[in-house]
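Today's session is about reading a structure prediction critically. Students often jump straight to the picture, but the first step is always the sequence itself: look for stretches that repeat, for charged clusters, for runs of hydrophobic residues. Only then move on to the predicted structure, which in these notes is written as discrete structure tokens rather than atom positions. Here is the chain we will use throughout the hour.
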Amino acid sequence: MSYRLTAGVAGLAVALVLAGCGGDDEEADASAPLASAAAPGSATYLADVCPSTVVVQTDWNPESEHGGTYELVGPNPSIDADKKRVTGTLVAHGGVDTGVRIEIRAGGPAIGFQQVSAQMYADPSITLGYNASDEAIALSKTQPTIGVFAGLEKSPQIIMWSPDKHPDWRSIADIGKTDTKVLYFQGAVYMDYLTGNGTLKKSQVDGSYDGAPANFVASGGEFAQQGFATAEPYIYENEVTAWKKKVTYQLIADAGFDFYQNMLGVRAGDLQKLTPCLKKLVPILQQSYVDFLGAPDETNALILKLVEEYNNGWTYTKGVADYSVRTMKELGIVGNGKDSAIGNFDDARVQHLIEITGPIFTAQNKEMKAGLKPSDIVTNEFIDPSIGLK
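Below is the predicted structure for this chain, in token form.
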């Protein structure tokens, strides 16, 4: 499943639909010229090794969690409001023209809520897609992908609750010591893990959550509910009129399901062909994420512009965008791996995820690759160890 579906529907449910619809190929407001063009053969010159247009398929509507990728879009991009995609010059650090273009496509409703892996196999024009490591494990035999960059170091997925109603709770495990109902989207793999290891009771979890705040609010905060640390805490305190109070939460990652979300990957069969491109592109992507976190305003403005132009019912405010960046920094949701590099993978962490999800997927009759190992779904081959957050 696409984990961004949950945050997206929640955002949709709590705010008004944006007015105005942009036409096809509308030019975004951006007047800054490119700083310079990369010299042929240089580390930032991609025209000799990459597709003329690098196509990135995201897993949801434009949002700040994708900011490092949108940071790659140069000035005066073309916005296709019907197809929900933006195209522009692919720029490296300092606005350097890399010699190719980038097209970033919205996911979620724009692709019929289909998994990105499936979309990648249906459309060979996609160069990179946003996947999650549990998705890559489940589809390792039928639609194999290999992650080349960890867009998020920690998943922002949470279980949240009212601190007024449950002042003694400090963790998801505390919820499991009660019979409190926990609302979530049916099919979430992390919930199979949490109920399977006894953190939560199967009898207390309710998969009827549809993204709307109504049931949580109607319970007076008696229920717990899934969400995203980068969105719901701000939305519920500031944008859900019927609530307007704080919520407390624990990250799913800190409860033991520490999966990689928003990892950018390629079709496994294309890895060798794309290797010359990825050797240059991934370090540019690493620096792009560093640059976005350091100065997010311009790219967040593009993200908000895209939300307005796409006009598909998804509402995303500047307040949420700014909060998202702050939270990603504070919680290390975007950050370096165990070393000083951003975007790399920890093989031991991936191996643990294979071990805990394998039985879940087997029970669901999902056939995984025999003898699956971390190198089948992720690689650090293209990571520049010198690029990271300071």
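Discussion point for the tutorial: The chain is about 30% helix and 15% strand.
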